[in-house]
Amino acid sequence: MAEEKGVKLLDFCSNPFGQQCRIALAEKGVEYECLELNLSDRSELLLKLNPVYKRTPALFHDGKTVRESLVIVEYIDEVWHGKSSILPSDPYERAKARFWADYVNQQFFECGTRLWRKKGKALQEAKEEFIQILKALEAELGDKKYFGGDAFGLVDIALVPFTSWFYSYETLAGFSVEQESSKLVAWAKRCLERESVAKSLHDPKSIYEFVEYLRKMYGVE
Fold first, then answer.
1. Same domain, residue pair 56 and 143
2. Do 105 and 209 fall within a single domain?
3. Is there a contact between 76 and 30 (Cβ–Cβ < 8 Å)?
4. Which of 50, 57, 79, 181 is buried most, with the most CB atoms less than 10 Å from its CB?
5. Does a structural domain hold residue 85?
């Protein structure tokens, strides 16, 4: 097993991308130190660890820095390989998992952001698009326990932090995730039964308070 000395995660508390990394570390049983930043913090440490994007999360391990959440999750899977794998062993299934995890980090996140940043027609358009994204993910999940079948893996880790944001999306955009995608809601409840997920996610009401802070900061209200 890889040396765990000096494992640090640079993150801020409500960051779903950082939570992806926290879940992966917990799944692998890795002890680490979390360096918390404020949302607006651009400290010297952040600029040093991620000078290109200047954002969290960033993983510091054994004198080296790994950046971007899905890259970090794959790094964790490869370095601490003593426990069950996060990515499938089959090349095709691995490629498919990477595709859907990227879909979450790009399409799902971007559209979800518009649900709390937009108003009027733009909000309605974002809601309709978001519902289609939910349905696409639900179709990929199908009747499986997790996106990878019986194994909790990369796509689950990518998506489950955003389930804490469902309450905010629903409240601000006026729809029900469960009515649109009941299988995804059932999947989210199964994921929350895992200790790695339960201890990494924030309460939906606290996320809503954070979103209200963001809306004021961006002048949405």
1. no
2. yes
3. yes
4. 57
5. no
d(CA 129, CA 173): 12
Q: What is the DSSP string of 153-221?
A: -HHHHHHGGGGGGHHHHHHHHT--HHHH-HHHHHHHHHHHTSHHHHTTSPPHHHHHHHHHHHHHHTT--
Q: Establish if 60 belongs to a structural domain.
A: yes
Query: Could you tell me if 57 and 109 lie in one domain?
Result: no
Residue 53 has pLDDT above 70, yes or no: no
Interval 110-168: pLDDT, tens: 999 999 999 999 999 999 999 999 999 999 999 999 999 999 999 999 999 999 999 99
pLDDT digits (tens, 9 = 90+) for 85-106: 999 999 999 999 999 999 999 9
For the entire predicted model, the pTM comes to 0.92
What is the residue range of 27's domain? 8-79
Looking at the domain assignment, is residue 157 inside a domain?
A: yes
- With residues binned 3-state (H G I as helix, E B as strand, rest as coil), the percentages for the chain, rounded to 5, are 60, 10, 30
Residue 4: per-residue pLDDT? 47
How far is Cα 221 from Cα 116, in angstroms, rounded to an integer?
Answer: 10
Number of folded domains that form the chain:
2
Query: Mean pLDDT over residues 41-58, rounded?
Result: 64
Q: Which residue has the tokens 């095709």?
A: 92
Contact 83/26 with Cβ under 8 angstroms?
A: no
Both 105 and 165 in one domain: the answer is yes
Report pLDDT for 37: 77
Is residue 147 one of the residues assigned to a domain? Answer: yes
